[in-house]
Specification:
CATH architecture of the largest domain in chain A: Up-down Bundle
Strand content of chain A: under 5%
Number of strands of chain A: 0
Structural class of chain A: mainly alpha
CATH superfamily of the largest domain in chain A: NADH-ubiquinone/plastoquinone oxidoreductase chain 6, subunit NuoJ
Helix content of chain B: over 70%
Helix content of chain A: 55-70%
CATH topology of chain B: Helix Hairpins
CATH class of chain B: Mainly Alpha
Number of domains of chain A: 3
Order of helices and strands of chain A: HHHHHH
Distance between the termini of chain A: 59 Å
Structural class of chain B: mainly alpha
Number of helices of chain A: 6
Strand content of chain B: under 5%
Largest sheet of chain B: none
CATH architecture of chain B: Orthogonal Bundle
Radius of gyration of chain A: 21 Å
Number of strands of chain B: 0
Shape of chain B: elongated
Oligomer: heterodimer
C-alpha cells in the first residue's frame, strides 16, 4: 500500500515539475509548482515527518507561492512565444549537464549500501511535532532565534530594494 | 517499507529537473521557481535520511532551510520587481546591467 502511495506521489511530483519547466504561461508554472509541493508534502508524510509536511503546505504552498503569484499578477508578464532560447547549443549543453549531474548522484546513491541502522520502535516517533519542538527549543534555540533576525532583515531589505525611488538617485534606465 | 534509494533517486530527479529549468528558461520568475524546486528536492533527501536513520537533526535543518527559502523568495522577488521597473521585462537576456 505504501509502495502504491509512493509511486503515485513520485509520478505526480515529477510530472508537475516537468510541467512547470515547460509551460508557457507563468501562472500555470506557479500552480504546477504548488502541485509539486503538495505531492512532496505527501511524501514527507510517508517518511513520518508530519510536522514538516504541514509546514511545507503552510509555508511553501501557502505563503511563498502566494507571494510568487502576487508578483506575477503585479508585473503582468505576457506569455512567451518561444519557450527556449534561439541558440540551440545552449539548450543541448543544459540537457547534457542535467543528465551528467543526475547520473553522478545516482552513481553515488548506488555505491551506498548497508550503512543504515536497524529501526527500533522509538525511532518511529522522530517526526512528530513534539519531538521536533523538543529538540528545536533546547539544542537549537540560538539558530531558531537567529532565523527570526534573518527574516526581519529580509523583509527590511525587500522593502528597500522594491522601493519606488531610491534616495541615492542613481538612475540606470 | 520502501528502500531509501527510491526517495534519494526521486530527490535527484527533481533536483535535475530544477537544474535544467534554471539553465534553459528565460523568464526570471520561472528560474526562481526552479531554484525553489531544487531546494525542495534537497529537503526531501534530508528528510528521508533523517527518517531512515532515526535522527531528528535532518528535520531541524529542513526547518531552517524553509525559513531561509522564505527570506530568499522575498528578497529575490523584490529584486525582480526592481529590475522590471527599470527594464519593463523579466527576460534575463535583456538584463545586461552587470554584464560586460
Amino acid at each position: 500500500m505504501i509502495t502504491y502511495f509512493f509511486v503515485f506521489l513520485a509520478v505526480l511530483a515529477v510530472a508537475s515539475a516537468l510541467a512547470m519547466v515547460i509551460s508557457k504561461n507563468t501562472v500555470n508554472s506557479a500552480l504546477f509548482l504548488v502541485l509539486n509541493m503538495v505531492s512532496l508534502a505527501g511524501l514527507f508524510l510517508l517518511l513520518k515527518a508530519q510536522f514538516l509536511a504541514v509546514i511545507q503546505i503552510l509555508v511553501y504552498a501557502g505563503a511563498i507561492m502566494v507571494l510568487f503569484l502576487f508578483v506575477i499578477m503585479l508585473l503582468n508578464v505576457q506569455d512567451e512565444e518561444r519557450l527556449f532560447n534561439k541558440f540551440r547549443l545552449k539548450y543541448f549543453v543544459a540537457f547534457l549537464l542535467g543528465v551528467g549531474v543526475f547520473s553522478q548522484i545516482i552513481y553515488s546513491i548506488g555505491s551506498f549500501t548497508d550503512t543504515l541502522p536497524t529501526v527500533s520502535s522509538d525511532m518511529a516517533y522522530v517526526g512528530t511535532v513534539e519531538a521536533v519542538g523538543d529538540v528545536m527549543f533546547t539544542e537549537y534555540l540560538l539558530p531558531f532565534e537567529l532565523t527570526a533576525i534573518l527574516l526581519t532583515a529580509a523583509v527590511v531589505g525587500a522593502l528597500i530594494v522594491a522601493q519606488h525611488k531610491i534616495k541615492s538617485g542613481a538612475t540606470n534606465d | 517499507m520502501i528502500s531509501i534509494d527510491w526517495f534519494l533517486a526521486l530527490s535527484a530527479l527533481l533536483f535535475c529537473i530544477g537544474i535544467i529549468g534554471v539553465l534553459i528558461r528565460k523568464n526570471a520568475i520561472v528560474i526562481f521557481m526552479c531554484v525553489e524546486l531544487m531546494l525542495n528536492a534537497v529537503n526531501l533527501s534530508l528528510i528521508s535520511f533523517s527518517s531512515y536513520y532515526g535522527n531528528i537533526d535532518g528535520q531541524i535543518l529542513v526547518f531552517f532551510a524553509l525559513a531561509v527559502a522564505a527570506a530568499e523568495a522575498v528578497v529575490g522577488l523584490a529584486i525582480i520587481i526592481a529590475i522590471f521597473r527599470n527594464n519593463l521585462s523579466v527576460d534575463i537576456n535583456k538584463v545586461n546591467l552587470m554584464r560586460w
